[in-house]
Design brief:
- The chain is α+β, with helices and mostly antiparallel strands.
- The chain folds into three domains: 211 residues, Rhodopsin 7-helix transmembrane proteins (Rhopdopsin 7-helix transmembrane proteins); 78 residues, no CATH class; 143 residues, Histidine kinase-like ATPase, C-terminal domain (Heat Shock Protein 90, 2-Layer Sandwich), CATH 3.30.565.
- Helices cover 66% and strands 11% of the residues.
- Strands 4-6-7-9-8 form a five-stranded mixed sheet. Strands 1-2 form a two-stranded antiparallel sheet. A two-stranded antiparallel ribbon has the order 3-5.
- A hairpin with a 3-residue loop joins strand 8 and strand 9.
- Helix 1 runs antiparallel to helix 2, helix 1 runs parallel beside helix 8 and helix 12 packs across helix 14.
- The protein is extended, with a radius of gyration of 33 Å.
């Protein structure tokens, strides 16, 4: 019985502790809320399971049994809710239905047809016996959990690389949790199989919690790969070492006829000294060529993902810009049949079409250039033109959020050495973030000024601001305060500014807004 006490308490601590830890990392995140909900239910179940095991009287055993069943009945619904939030899909009707089913069974717990009795079984003082309705609950449990698993498998192939990692860990954790939990039920039907699977259930909330924290998933994935590769390589080296020691010892014994153990020890030490540099070299090679490359590959994939998101918003902004010239062309084309004989109209129409088509072609060309990840090509550019271009592209987003734009271009019309497309990416990221920080209303101030040999751009918003501790991390890869952020937008921005021999910094105050300052060297 004692091992069951330990594992039930371990599951309680792991579920409750990790659930609260993840929740307080970002309380507004729906996925974090769903994980806390699931972990709380698991924690209540495992806590009252422990109390059930140590019960001394039938009344206490019955009370704890009813409470733990009330908790476990809600596990499939909470699991489905978490999967829905993880995949970011809308299954509200099915989720609500699963909660209703859970409530119905929670009421039926107190019916004798659900739990027929409590009696000693195997080495347990008290253990439940299933009633006729209990099978219906098991069927509902399998259907709801099975549907959630189906959603994970269905959405796996079309997911991003990081989401695939998260789905794999959730599937693995689910297998451990449900496989471990399933061993509890044979004794309910007097099948004499102990619930040994309980001893692994504590792993279930641990992996779930790590899977929810996406940057930790990346680190966990690398750590697991490192452990596996290191373990296999060291195992091969160790086996080779032992084989050489045994063969050398036998060869020396046959050649010299010695029987002393000290000769064997001396031979083993000498061979070990030879193998130690080999072991270190293998570890170094693994770190250099496998682990580092794997991490960089995943990092590049995340950067590409962030770039794709920025590109999608850029395309949306351009679509808004393209609509205007298309409207002009459409308007003139509708009047063309009626005014075809009007020479002035035809000339004006011809000029308008040429101008507007050139504008559309220019926009599409810039979109294609923006999408190409090329090395920086530094030329003399006017930063004021780049700022105005970025504001035009984001005009739809700015209007939607009711943001007022204030431009203070106090700097001289100085040129700077920059890669136009990469600097557009920087300004796009900064201004888009500022706009998103001011939901529904706010003021976006863009200031430029000269500072000796540098051109300064300040982008200030009146949004929610950034916490002091978070402000220190905003340029770190994978750090994000957004629920769906990759945490790479500002990291990429900083790297681009560094390529231009410039600097970027930020200051912020909660409730007052944030100001980003970019310093770039002027053209000589």
């Amino acid at each position: 019985m004692f091992p069951y006490y330990i594992t039930s308490l371990l599951t309680t601590v792991a579920s409750l502790g990790l659930g609260l830890f993840v929740f307080y990392k970002n309380p507004k995140n729906r996925l974090h809320q769903s994980l806390l909900r699931l972990n709380l239910v698991v924690a209540v179940w495992s806590l009252f399971l422990f109390l059930h095991y140590i019960s001394r009287t039938l009344s206490i055993a019955a009370f704890t049994l009813y409470i733990l069943h009330t908790a476990v009945i809600f596990i499939p619904a909470c699991y489905l809710h978490l999967v829905s939030d993880l995949l970011n899909i809308n299954k509200q009707k099915i989720i609500r239905a699963s909660y209703v089913i859970s409530i119905i069974f929670a009421v039926l717990i107190y019916n004798n047809n659900f739990i027929a009795g409590i009696e000693p079984k195997l080495y347990f003082r008290f253990y439940a016996t299933a009633g006729r309705l209990y099978l219906l609950w098991i069927i509902a449990y399998l259907i709801i959990s099975g549907y959630a698993t189906y959603l994970l498998l269905k959405n796996y192939s079309g997911s991003s690389h990081i989401k695939k990692i998260r789905i794999r860990y959730v599937l693995f954790a689910s297998f451990i949790g449900f496989a471990g939990g399933s061993t509890i039920y044979p004794l309910f039907y007097n099948i004499q199989i102990p619930p040994w699977g309980e001893h692994i259930i504590f792993i279930y909330p641990v992996i779930f919690s790590i899977a929810v924290l996406k940057h930790d998933v990346l680190e966990l994935n690398i750590a697991i790969k490192r452990t596996i590769v290191y373990s296999v390589s060291i195992l091969i080296i160790t086996i080779t070492y032992l084989v050489i020691v045994l063969l050398s010892e036998r060869l020396l014994r046959n050649m010299m006829g010695y029987q002393s153990i000290w000769v064997t020890v001396a031979a083993a030490v000498i061979i070990a000294l030879i193998f130690t540099p080999l072991k270190n070299m293998v570890e170094s090679l693994i770190e250099k060529f496998y682990i580092t490359n794997a991490y960089q590959r995943l990092q590049r994939e995340l950067i590409d993902s962030d770039r794709s998101k920025a590109l999608a918003q850029l395309a949306a902004g351009m679509a808004h810009e393209i609509r205007n010239p298309l409207t002009a062309i459409k308007t003139f084309s509708e009047y063309l049949p009626k005014k075809f004989d009007d020479r002035d109209f035809r000339n004006e129409f011809s000029q308008i079409v040429k101008t507007e088509v050139d504008k559309i072609n220019s926009l599409i060309t810039q979109l294609l250039e923006f999408s190409k990840p090329t090395s920086p090509v530094l030329v003399s550019v006017d930063p004021h033109q780049l700022l105005d271009y970025t504001l035009d592209i984001l005009s739809a987003e700015i209007l939607k959020n009711n943001v007022k734009i204030v431009k203070n271009y106090t700097a001289d019309a100085s040129l700077i050495e920059a890669d136009s497309n990469k600097l557009k990416h920087v300004l796009f990221n900064i201004i888009r973030n500022a706009t998103e920080a001011m939901r529904y209303s706010g003021t976006l101030s863009i200031n430029t000024l000269n500072q000796k040999d540098n051109f300064i751009i300040e982008v200030a918003d009146t949004g929610c601001g950034i916490k002091r501790n978070d402000l220190k991390k905003i340029f770190q890869p994978f750090f994000s305060t957004k629920p769906k952020g990759t945490g790479l937008g500002l990291a990429v921005t900083e790297s681009i500014i560094a390529e231009h021999n410039g600097n970027i910094s930020a200051k912020s105050a909660i409730g007052k807004g944030t100001t980003f300052t970019i310093s770039l060297p002027k053209s000589s």
